[in-house]
């Protein structure tokens, strides 16, 4: 069951901004308080990014992206979070011009990842915000942990397709870890190109929320801060679609 709690100021502000403009940034201290996730919890959860598998579908030939993938159904009335059978990840070509139009088969989420209470807390509290925007009570949630790596010889592109939509209702990017990287600036724009939010997600728990029906988003390239060492940017992408 979803534990009932008073609607927080963080949630109310996010609902208002998403309703008004279609984008909202929640900083790590507020989101950690909202989800009840402590620094030690973020650190434990981040360990799941060490077992991601290289993405074999990079149309640009890059070897810098690692990921896994899974789907859930979340019922806001009963609190049931149901893991759905594993299947391919697909976006159509009109949504993703670089990688769309094909079934991309990724390794499933690990049991350690799915069983970590951080995942449920993050999914539920995010969904409460989105339900507050449009009243949806049941969500399909596509969950993709992603690591973008970079070395002195290879730039990492978090969004190689450029500024884009994902073809869902709401899209989120949750920072998990940054190590020895510079760049990675996130932005959200209107359909007409007006800049709504620009930020660099840095701390575990920084999260950018967007109404994917009304906005486009993108992230700039990452490079090593110290060329002598590799770097990585770890995020959790959660895509919420109304059912």
Describe the protein in words.
By secondary structure, this protein is α+β, with helices and mostly antiparallel strands. The protein has 5 helices and 16 strands. The chain has helices at 9-20, 28-35, 39-46, 111-115, 117-134, and strands spanning 23-26, 53-54, 65-67, 70-75, 81-83, 89-91, 102-104, 138-150, 170-179, 181-183, 185-190, 195-200, 207-211, 215-219, 222-224, 231-242. Strand 4 and strand 5 (81-83) form a beta hairpin. It is globular.
Rg over CA atoms? 17 Å
Q: What order do the SSEs take from the amino end to the carboxyl end, as H and E? A: HEHHEEEEEEHHEEEEEEEEE
How many helices does DSSP assign? 5
Overall 3D shape: globular
The percent range for strand residues is: 35-45%
End-to-end span in angstroms? 19 Å
Overall average residue pLDDT: 94
Low-confidence stretches: none
Q: Percent range for helical residues?
A: 10-25%
Class derived from helix and strand content: alpha+beta
Major beta sheet, specifics? 9 strands, antiparallel
Q: What's the count of strands?
A: 16
């Amino acid at each position: 069951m979803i534990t009932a709690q008073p609607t927080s100021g963080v949630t109310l502000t996010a609902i208002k901004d998403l309703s008004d403009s279609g984008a909202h940034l929640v900083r790590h201290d507020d989101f950690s308080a909202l989800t009840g996730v402590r620094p030690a919890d973020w650190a434990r959860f981040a360990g799941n990014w060490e077992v991601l598998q290289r993405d074999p579908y990079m149309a640009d030939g890059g070897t810098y992206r690692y990921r896994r993938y899974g789907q859930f159904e979340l019922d806001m009335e009963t609190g049931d979070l149901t893991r759905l059978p594993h299947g391919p990840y697909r976006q159509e070509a009109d949504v993703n011009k670089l990688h769309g139009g094909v079934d991309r088969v990724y390794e499933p989420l690990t049991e350690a990842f799915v069983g970590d209470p951080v995942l449920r807390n993050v999914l539920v509290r995010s969904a409460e915000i989105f339900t507050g925007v449009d009243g949806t009570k049941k969500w399909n949630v596509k969950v993709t942990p992603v690591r973008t790596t970079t070395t002195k010889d290879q730039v990492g592109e978090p969004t190689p397709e450029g500024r884009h939509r994902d073809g869902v209702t709401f899209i989120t990017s949750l920072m998990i870890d940054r190590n020895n990287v510079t760049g990675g600036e996130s932005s959200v724009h209107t359909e007409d190109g007006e800049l709504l939010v620009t930020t660099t997600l840095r701390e575990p728990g920084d999260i950018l929320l967007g109404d994917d029906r009304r906005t486009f988003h993108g992230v700039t390239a990452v490079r090593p801060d110290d060329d002598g060492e590799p770097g990585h940017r770890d995020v959790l992408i959660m895509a919420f679609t109304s059912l």
